[in-house]
Amino acid sequence: xxxxxxxxxxxxxxxxxxxxxxxxxxxxxxxxxxxxxxxxxxxxxxxxxxxxxxxxxxxxxxxxxxxxxxxxxxxxxxxxxxxxxxxxxxxxxxxxxxxxxxxxxxxxxxxxxxxxxxxxxxxxxxxxxxxxxxxxxxxxxxxxxxxxxxxxxxxxxxxxxxxxxxxxxxxxxxxxxxxxxxxxxxxxxxxxxxxxxxxxxxxxxxxxxxxxxxxxxxxxxxxxxxxxxxxxxxxxxxxxxxxxxxxxxxxxxxxxxxxxxxxxxxxxxxxxxxxxxxxxxxxxxxxxxxxxxxxxxxxxxxxxxxxxxxxxxxxxxxxxxxxxxxxxxxxxxxxxxxxxxxxxxxxxxxxxxxxxxxxxxxxxxxxxxxxxxxxxxxxxxxxxxxxxxxxx
Length: 392
Ligand code: GLA
What we know:
alpha+beta; binds alpha-D-galactopyranose
């Protein structure tokens, strides 16, 4: 299991702020990474998702410079996870820089505008959310920044709005075409529960989730994921367009019943994409019903989701398929599937915590010798969502 190297916390991000900016921060906030239990590639199709927050968080300390030089408002940002140099960006008419602090600028600039103030803002960041693994480190950074900056500016910011501002920063400023799941999960999740989010309306509720998870990062480089993701989004839009020729009132692709999709005889591969989305969103409903009834999410649902992603959505890879197939043969494992966008990234193995502790090293060893890749593994339970930790 990948050891938690000196996990950052409210105290360490506060110390970083003091060290780099020479005074106390006004506020500290934090937000977690996430994994999705079931409901993959449904969020941008108006469907349902069921993520949990993981036990890894991003911490942000923020404050305004004590002596305001009176110029244009600026962001200054430092991170315990990045090279020592300080990032700076204008907060009025900001431009994307291609640097890590774009996530902060994309969140802070609209909040400053909303506040009607012209303060500069200093931010320090520390995180143990793994990057480039598909665990939403960017959502954790955006959401924690939104809470901290809103606090500094004296703005009331309900968690739903923090999620929305974070999502707009990711899609509109940083320029990544994702659905709303990641930012909403980071903002709204609760310990011991899974977040059931309807992505067409952003309505949500919770279902108890007591199992543990082994998060298995396949260590496959991420480069191909974005282009495939955008291709799938375009295919889904086209599938919806064709279905609407027949059912003009169909609100979203996820709303199409599996029977409708089959009856429509869409051209391949649109038929497979649409069938996955339709069935997957219904699997989420079944999973939520099971959890509410005091059961676990069944192996059929978890593995069924994986097989659909493999065969219909075609976003798996042999490495992910192997992890799933091998994991479910191990004792105490309830089920497994790829999670997040796919084409690499992580699989989750769901089960009893003790059993997963045993399963982890077995899977890691065999994976490494089979694929010559060194995986990263983390154990998690359903953790808490974003929160303000302290204000000065
Ligand atoms: C990525 C995106 C999410 C979602 C998943 C697939 O993680 O960021 O919005 O679309 O892929 O379910």
